[in-house]
Amino acid sequence: xxxxxxxxxxxxxxxxxxxxxxxxxxxxxxxxxxxxxxxxxxxxxxxxxxxxxxxxxxxxxxxxxxxxxxxxxxxxxxxxxxxxxxxxxxxxxxxxxxxxxxxxxxxxxxxxxxxxxxxxxxxxxxxxxxxxxxxxxxxxxxxxxxxxxxxxxxxxxxx
Length: 159
Known about the structure:
- There is one protein chain.
- With 159 residues, the chain is of the alpha+beta class.
- Helices cover 26% and strands 42% of the residues.
- The chain has five helices and eight strands, in the order E-E-E-E-H-E-E-E-E-H-H-H-H.
- Strands 4-3-2-1-8-7-6-5 form an eight-stranded antiparallel sheet, with helices on one face.
- The longest helix is centred in the last third of the chain and has 14 residues, at 102-115.
- The chain starts with a strand and ends in a 14-residue tail after the last helix.
């Protein structure tokens, strides 16, 4: 099965306070071999980028209405008359509130939805083919399945 990757580089804003944001280069990645997930990589000025993975459905819904709980929450809002999507990310390493252009995120999501429409994700996983391959008997299986030890039951001699 052919795998497709849909990527988008964009600049997010790390919200430090209502008056102060810090630009953060980011990359959105969607892979058809992982059809339920979106991958976001943030370049935060260290030698190691920060990677987050969460449900594509969460981001799709978050463009329109608040959703998520726990580690990832997403909701739309307006900042200085611009439509933005806010992502609140929480981990043991800390919390971050990121602001992204709703237009940029929506355009990227539309591309992912054209590649793998909602509801068709399971067909992209290849589970049936993978299970068939895993469960297919191999020539060595016949030897393995044969009982290597003769039965412990000896005919009783009545004594």
